[in-house]
Amino acid sequence: xxxxxxxxxxxxxxxxxxxxxxxxxxxxxxxxxxxxxxxxxxxxxxxxxxxxxxxxxxxxxxxxxxxxxxxxxxxxxxxxxxxxxxxxxxxxxxxxxxxxxxxxxxxxxxxxxxxxxxxxxxxxxxxxxxxxxxxxxxxxxxxxxxxxxxxxxxxxxxxxxxxxxxxxxxxxxxxxxxxxxxxxxxxxxxxxxxxxxxxxxxxxxxxxxxxxxx
Length: 214
Prior knowledge:
The chain is an alpha+beta fold and 214 residues long. It contains two helices and ten strands. Mean pLDDT is 79; it is low at 1-18 and 96-102.
């Protein structure tokens, strides 16, 4: 999904300058790791908020513009007590005019629809209350570079009028196919790598020398 209009960019900027609400699903980037010729992108999710916030079945979070997703997903509970079966992953082109699947509320709905698909992670299980770790989510991409993309979370708020979903939005690093974008995995400089090999070699030779003296 791409943000493709001047008005859209302005509205998105206004929504994201506020950052994610303290009452929300918060996503943080956990780094990248090689996976064959592909790259694993890791994200840590937490539920934060007051006593009126909860995570219920069909609440979810979205990472927009996740380019090159291979369909490979792994989950680490990270002490949350949850299981991979508590989460389902969809790779869809979310449309806020309503595609019958996902409809976000402001400010998350300020993100405009485009051609690149988005990752949607939907929760199923018992009601969870904040503060609560939700685990570490890893998605594999064919891309090896990064760019800043929006994300949104949808939780449930209980009020005097009943329970209703609410959304938040912020930004996080995601994959990019642009070869000029920052690399997801920072390569070790050749000079540093050579120096490390030299130091290891000298240390090994020193051990052999001491063994011969003994």
